[in-house]
Specification:
Order of helices and strands: EHHEEHEHEEHEHEEHEEEEHEEHEEHEE
Largest sheet: 6 strands, mixed
Shape: globular
Strand order of the largest sheet: 1-11-3-2-12-13
Mean pLDDT: 78
Distance between the termini: 38 Å
Helix content: 25-40%
Length: 424
């Protein structure tokens, strides 16, 4: 079974060595830190979005339930040493953080061989959409048929060629059907064309259209091969906006995503042929990301950023845009499944002298000001564990530094002049 989908808690145990995947060695020294900071912000964004989707997926009682829960802990703690940030990663296909790492590895491994091809042909193969219950068997049919055609071309037709195959799957929300399909890159037109004709001969219901076509490719179009194996978002029909323009809404169908992820267990997304060497789709559980800083710190994921466990300062400064914050509104749950909202851990700020909460629009100014205390709200169920009540003083802020290991801090709705500490 594919390791990236059969993930157990042991996968997050430390490995013997960290692998640096996000490197900036070619970046001039004066811009390396800015480069690393931008990379960190992108990783924070990917982590934030992944948690929004993985949390409700873990509530579906799926065969992948443990793996979905593992994704919530992916890169949740980062250890900073001079020049590096080391964390433990889940390696799951639905994790945007790990998918970005995996995509970078695949591009690095396969693109040199593709660029060296004398000519490039992009082949797409598919069959009519099918229902969820048939998806796993349909994917196996695709893989088996592709192997048979490849053997036919190489053994019966005596063709010598190289190719790279990728299998993808999308979901049609309107018809509630699934569309697995192949993308190939060939270095020979005759081999690609015969592969297409043989596919159509074996699949009479497949039509010679955009779902089954052969076209000339270049290095840029070949990069399309490395996008994620399934689209998380399903767009609805475009609607016209009064006064001009158009808008297309989107939905994230949780049951459909789970169906595709389960069906793809044990399946290699990429398969090379000919002189192209296979590149592992696995990523090491422990990864190192360049920080561009000479510091030693420990950071823990809180809400939408990693927070320094000693200073309580955020690592990247990433703040989700309104459109990103609205993603939970677009989640579509299966019938009978309760809506599961990821606990909100976005911090707010309190004036230490008055206990007043800083308005959201002024939070940026209070972030690093010594006169304000950073406060993390608690999920409602945790607010029953009242530990003690303290005045809103600098001493209270010192006790709050124990967060998140022993204490959580919240402002009392009844008396903003006090800070309440809750045990965890």
């Amino acid at each position: 079974m594919h390791k990236s989908t059969q993930v157990l808690p042991e996968r997050l145990k430390k490995s013997t060595a960290a692998v640096v995947l996000d490197t900036s060695e070619q970046v001039p020294p004066d811009t390396k830190q800015a480069f690393s900071q931008k990379t960190l912000e992108k990783r924070a964004r990917a982590k934030f979005i992944t948690n929004i989707v993985a949390f409700p997926l873990s509530k579906l009682r799926s065969p992948l339930e443990k793996a979905y829960k593992l994704t919530e802990r992916c890169s949740s703690q980062l250890t900073e040493t001079p020049g590096k940030l080391v964390g433990l990663y889940c390696g799951c296909r639905w994790c945007l953080v790990c998918s970005r790492i995996r995509t970078a590895r695949l591009i690095t491994g396969y693109m040199p061989a593709i660029e060296n091809m004398g000519e490039k042909w992009f082949l797409t193969l598919s069959r009519p959409n099918i229902a969820a219950a048939l998806l796993e068997a349909e994917i196996q049919y695709y893989l088996t048929t592709a192997q048979l055609i490849q053997r036919h071309l190489r053994e019966k037709r005596k063709l010598k060629y190289s190719s790279l195959r990728k299998i993808e799957c999308t979901y049609n929300a309107e018809a509630n059907t699934y569309h697995p399909h192949f993308h190939f890159i060939f270095d020979d037109f005759q081999a690609a064309d015969l592969f297409l004709q043989e596919w159509l001969r074996r699949n009479p219901t497949a039509l010679l259209n955009k779902g089954n076509q052969l076209k000339k490719a270049d290095n840029n179009s070949c990069m399309e091969l490395f996008k994620y194996f399934t689209k998380v978002v399903s767009k609805t029909k475009t609607t016209k906006i009064p006064g001009g323009g158009a808008r297309s809404d989107y939905h994230i169908h949780l049951a459909a995503l789970d169906t595709m992820f389960v069906a793809m267990r044990g399946v290699r997304t990429f398969q090379p042929c000919g002189v192209i060497k296979a590149v592992s789709e696995e990523i090491e559980p422990e990864q190192a990301l360049e920080s561009g800083r000479a510091e030693v710190n420990f950071h823990k994921w809180m809400g939408h950023d990693w927070v320094n466990e000693t200073t309580q300062q955020v690592l990247t400064g990433y703040v989700p845009a309104p459109g990103i914050q609205d993603i939970p509104k677009h989640l579509v749950y299966p019938p009978g499944v309760a809506v599961e909202v990821l606990p909100e851990l976005t911090p707010f700020y309190v004036d230490k002298s008055t206990g007043e909460v800083v308005p959201n629009e002024q939070a940026q100014l209070a972030r690093n000001h010594p006169g304000f205390a950073k406060v993390y709200p608690l999920p409602p169920i945790e607010r029953q564990r009242l530990c003690c009540t303290l005045p809103a003083t600098p001493e209270a802020d010192v006790q709050a530094q124990k967060f998140p290991e022993q204490l959580l801090l919240v402002v009392s709705p009844a008396a903003h002049s006090q800070l309440l500490l809750f045990s965890v």
